[in-house]
Amino acid sequence: MSDGTLPVSAATSPARPMSLSPRARQAVILVALAAIWEIYARWLGNSLLLPTFFETLTALWTATLNGELPDRTLASLSVLLSGYAIGIVLAAAITALAVLNRWGESLLSLLTSMFNPLPAIALLPIALLWFGIGASSVIFVIVHAVLWPLALACHAGFRAVPPTLRMAGRNIGLSGPSYVFALLVPAALPSILSGLRLGWAFAWRTLIAAEMVFGASARSGGLGWFIFTNRAQLETANVFAGLLAVILIGLAVEIFVFATLTRLTVQRWGMEG
């Protein structure tokens, strides 16, 4: 006969707190940041210094509807992807050479020590002299911004590959490019993806800065020129709308490109530490 009491395990077990997924937590954080922005801007009461979040969204929506922001975004992305792709190819070539040859390793070490600390924006005067005002100059500085951090990340990943795995690859006949791309690249994929993320971030920063400089000279450009012209016209809401567009594109690339690649490769293969 039951006395109406619950079993000890059921009576004493605490209720499990509801846990949110990482994406849900990030969404909550974004909403909180937007609310803080809105509250502080309303308290400041000066749209010339800081427009509210909803004023910025309105400016973003208006610039999107009239076609200016999409055109500027496409112009920026076309230049960015060109420089990013060239940087990836050059980084792969230099890193492969460093893995296969001691002279190549010394070359990579020397070049990264020389050029990695050099800000890409400092090469703008050289780019103007060599390529003139236009997309080629911007691509040049983007390649510089992408090449060295990506090469360093790839080389660090290759060096971290266990010696036993290297020996196994040699024993089955891998050599030259097949040794690099069939063995080292898959084994060093976490480091390579980190380098790609870092290179993308550097490329975005360099692009916006370069477009503001070249746009001021050529009166054309992408998102950087959009931000520059609206700053000159004291359209602060449009300035923040341009900055918000850069942030949103960065988030989209992280979520739909890099996070997807990580999930389909590194996580699926159990390579995360």
Topology:
Layout: H1 8-12, H2 22-44, H3 53-65, H4 68-100, H5 102-115, H6 124-131, H7 135-159, H8 163-171, H9 177-187, H10 189-218, H11 223-232, H12 236-267
Helix pairs in contact: 3-12, 4-5, 4-7, 4-10, 4-11, 5-7, 6-7, 7-10, 10-11, 10-12, 11-12
Short description:
The chain has 273 residues and is an all-alpha fold. It contains twelve helices and no strands.
CATH homology group = MetI-like
The tally of strands reads 0
Distance between the termini: 54 Å
Count of alpha and pi helical runs: 12
Largest sheet: none
Number of domains: 1
Percent range for β-strand residues: under 5%
Using the coordinates above, name the CATH class.
Mainly Alpha
Structural class: mainly alpha
Mean pLDDT: 83
| Rg calc | 25 Å
Outline the low-pLDDT stretches.
none
Instruction: Estimate percent helicity.
Output: over 70%
Bulk shape: globular
**N to C succession of SSEs:** HHHHHHHHHHHH
Label this structure with key terms.
273 residues, mainly alpha, MetI-like fold, 78% helix, 0% strand
Q: What report would you give on this structure?
A:
The protein has 273 residues and is an all-alpha fold. The protein is 78% helix and 0% strand. The chain has helices at 8-12, 22-44, 53-65, 68-100, 102-115, 124-131, 135-159, 163-171, 177-187, 189-218, 223-232, 236-267. The longest helix has 33 residues, at 68-100.
